[in-house]
Specification:
five-stranded parallel sheet
């Protein structure tokens, strides 16, 4: 109450009603060591209702994670350790950045999947509960979380995957910003979770007609959840939001705003506190709470003994674990990357699939799948089993609980957030595929991956009108520049198979950011690198693929993906008429912009003002590269239903159009 009152904004109500549950979890249930927030053997806790950040911050303070009262006093202020919503990498003990509702539930599902995959990699034969890689994932969520569609998608996957290491506690307080949730919500949430395949339990603190915070009953339920290895557990905890504020409890007014001085004082009197004292914590209370560190150290010691025994018995696995935990790539792994001979047309999605199959055996940390588009996205590593409970194997897909190929179903939004959870858990590196146009369904998760700097890879295929007959609903137009607008996301559109191999390598060498691969459905030429520049240039984001005759260009054509072929054809025509023309392949503007000024000027000399960009999408950001005298061959409207060659011709994305644009730009530059 004091923290929200001091800053004048925030969400006090849920933090008040969840305080007993949060203290119980951190003090008695959660396996954690406050002296080492990154201890590999810890349980993970996700506060999906991130608006109630004080629920987490207060427990981090009470448990001894390094937050102190001054940090709580600085809630929601500049440069504090207590921002409005918890931020991963900013505050010790915060496992993920939550804010958009439902994301945390999906992150928790990803963490639970990652924990199982990790156990399968390093200690698959240990009895249940006996491995140092056995731990649990706990999440608190709100009414808003269970309403958001992403939580449905992720929870269905969790039930199907039999994630017995996952427990979600729903704060069933029936109040949101618009007051009583009955105005918008009437379904039986427990029945829904039971239908997903979860164990469901109700803990009702109003069952007697009086409000009784029966922490003992909740403790029994949480302890029992640890023992159910075949199902995730969903606990509906019936609370009264803002308890025991005399006038604002159980109302929307306490959900997202300060109580006001009078209500704070009245609530303190009910609780037996001195209304004249703010931020008061009795020394003996803090001393008692921080004894949790003793429990944590004891658990840590027991875990260390088990972990060291495992290392001694499994030296090769231990060495691999160390490498993967540190996100180090193995020596010589790039030798496995395929090279593709010129003279054969190959879709970049197919080349990507060959890359994955080639490097899979030497990068066991890399795993992933598709949102029901595996054959279209080419995301399946050859010969790798599916990650699935044995009873759900099919004739087409064989596997087991420790498999490698992920099947997300048609759930792109949950896929994105689950990938984030896998990356947040640590160690393994995930990827997930769908069509580029459906990145719209994933965008909130992609944005959060960029915000958290997570090494997640998105395999987005069918990257333009080049997908053809499926028509404008499936043809991305605005997507490339819309995604490039996300700070910290690398959008990578390779031009041919060898660029695809180079950019996959480059993506995997980055451990501090997500990347999206935009790949073709249609076949494109594998360029003759004896005539053109090496595909190694793709690692720099942009490079001179074909130099102008004489080495000094009059005009520069910048292209990405399948349109690089058109740029090369246009260059031939321009060169034939005596115009010295350079072609720059620009698979990733983010990587190119990260190069030093000298390199960028070498590729795009400022003195050459005649420039043309070629990309089968909107031209939104290309002006930055082509300048005032430049021109863009683009698509400023939706696509159509026809084969891709017809579409390119009808919409004017042709070598002839590029030549005309180059001439126009040359005229402007000379004027």
């Amino acid at each position: 109450m004091d923290a929200v009152e001091k800053v004048g904004s925030g969400h006090p109500g849920t933090a008040m009603s969840l305080a007993p549950a949060a203290y119980l979890l951190f003090n008695k249930v959660l396996k954690h060591d406050p002296s080492d927030p990154n201890w590999a053997g810890r349980d993970r806790f996700v506060l999906s209702c991130g608006h109630s950040s004080l629920t987490l911050y207060i427990q981090l303070y009470l448990s001894g994670y390094g937050l102190e009262l001054d940090d709580l006093k600085a809630l929601r202020t500049w440069n504090s350790l207590t921002p409005a919503h918890p931020e991963h990498g900013h505050t010790a003990g915060v496992e993920t950045t939550t804010g958009p509702l439902g994301q945390g539930i999906a992150n928790a599902v990803g963490m639970a999947m990652a924990a199982r995959r990790e156990r399968g990699l390093f200690d698959p034969d240990a009895p249940a509960g006996e491995s140092p890689f056995d731990h649990n994932i706990w999440a608190f969520c709100s009414d808003g979380d269970v309403q958001e569609g992403i939580s449905h998608e992720a929870s269905a996957i969790a039930g199907h995957q039999r994630l017995g290491n996952l427990t979600v506690v729903w704060d069933d307080n029936r109040i949101s910003i618009e007051d009583d949730t009955q105005i918008a919500m009437s379904e039986d949430v427990l029945a829904r979770y039971a239908a997903y395949g979860w164990e469901t339990v109700r803990v009702d603190w109003l069952k007697t007609g009086e409000y009784v915070e029966d922490v003992r009953r909740l403790y029994e339920v949480l302890e029992a959840a640890k023992l159910d290895s075949n199902r995730p557990t969903f606990v509906a905890l019936r609370t009264v939001i803002g308890w025991p504020a005399p006038n604002k409890k159980d109302t929307g007014k306490i959900h997202g705003s300060a109580l006001g001085a009078a209500e704070v004082a009245a609530t303190k009197e009910i609780l037996g506190f001195d209304p004249a004292k703010d931020f008061y914590v009795a020394p003996e209370v803090l001393e008692h709470a921080r004894k949790v560190a003793d429990r944590g150290l004891a658990e840590r010691k027991a875990w260390d003994e088990k972990y060291q025994a495992w290392r001694a018995a499994n030296p090769q696995r231990a060495a691999e674990y160390d490498r993967i935990a540190e996100r180090r790539l193995p020596e010589g792994w790039t030798a496995k990357l395929p090279t593709f001979p010129a003279g054969k047309d190959l879709a970049t999605r197919a080349a990507s699939g060959e890359v994955l199959s080639a490097i899979g055996p030497v990068l066991p940390e890399l795993w992933g799948g598709s949102a029901d588009l595996a054959e279209s996205n080419n995301t399946t590593m050859k010969g790798e089993p599916s990650f699935i409970p044995a009873e759900f194997q099919t004739d087409e897909w064989q596997g087991g609980p420790y498999g490698r190929t992920l099947h997300f179903g048609i759930r792109e939004h949950a896929m994105g957030a689950i990938l984030n959870g896998i990356a947040l858990h640590g160690g393994t590196r995930p990827y997930g595929g769908t069509f580029l146009v459906f990145s719209d369904y994933m965008r909130p998760s992609v944005r959060l991956a960029a915000l958290m700097k997570l090494p997640v890879t998105y395999v987005w295929t069918h990257d333009s009108i080049g997908l053809g007959e499926d028509g404008p609903t499936h043809q991305p137009v605005e997507h490339l520049w819309s995604l490039r607008a996300i700070p910290g996301l690398d959008v990578v559109r390779p031009a041919d198979a060898n660029e695809t191999a180079v950019v996959w390598r480059t993506i995997l060498e980055h451990t501090d950011r997500p990347a999206g691969l935009a790949l073709t459905r249609q076949k494109v030429p594998v360029f003759d690198r004896d005539v053109l520049a090496s595909a190694e240039g793709a690692a720099k984001g942009g490079y001179v693929l074909a130099e102008a005759d004489g080495g000094t260009p009059e005009v520069i054509i910048i292209a990405t993906g399948s349109e690089v072929e058109l740029a090369l054809a246009a260059r031939e025509s321009l060169q034939a008429e005596g115009t010295a023309t350079r072609v720059v392949s620009m698979p990733c503007v983010e990587w190119f912009d990260a190069q030093d000024a000298a390199y960028r000027a070498e590729v795009l000399p400022p003195a050459v003002r005649a420039r043309v960009s070629v990309e089968a999408g909107i031209a939104l950001g290309w002006h930055r590269y082509v300048g005032e005298d430049g021109a863009s061959i683009s698509l400023e409207h939706f696509g159509g239903s026809a084969d891709y060659k017809t579409l390119y011709q009808q919409f004017g994305i042709t070598p002839e159009a590029v030549v005309a644009a180059a001439r126009e730009s040359l005229t402007k530059a000379k004027g």
